[in-house]
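In the current project phase, the collection of sequences with tokenised folds has grown. A representative record is quoted in full directly below:
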Amino acid sequence: QVQLVESGGGLVQAGGSLRLSCAASGGSFGTVAMNWFRQAPGKGREFVGSIGWSGILTYYADSVKGRFIISRDNVKKMAYLQMNTLKPEDAAVYYCAASRLPRPTLSTADVISWGQGTQVSVSA
């Protein structure tokens, strides 16, 4: 089972950028899709984006499409979420997650491992 640790969260002004990182250990990182989800206070966990095992295929939620970019480095066992033009409504705890599938997926039902989460705060 792959273990995941996120980093890179923090406080940023609206319109700013942050890059989240997700370090993986154990498991078969290079053969499964990696996903990002987020959860704001009082709300359910929301899909943000997913990247397939090879890094070629990506899928994004409409709310972040054109602003966020997911990437991965299978040699370093790292996944990244570049967040640009941040909005106050992007504030949440962000989680990286390993999928059981090689292709991008948006369902939490396909997640086999979660990171502990990293807080992103956006000031207006």
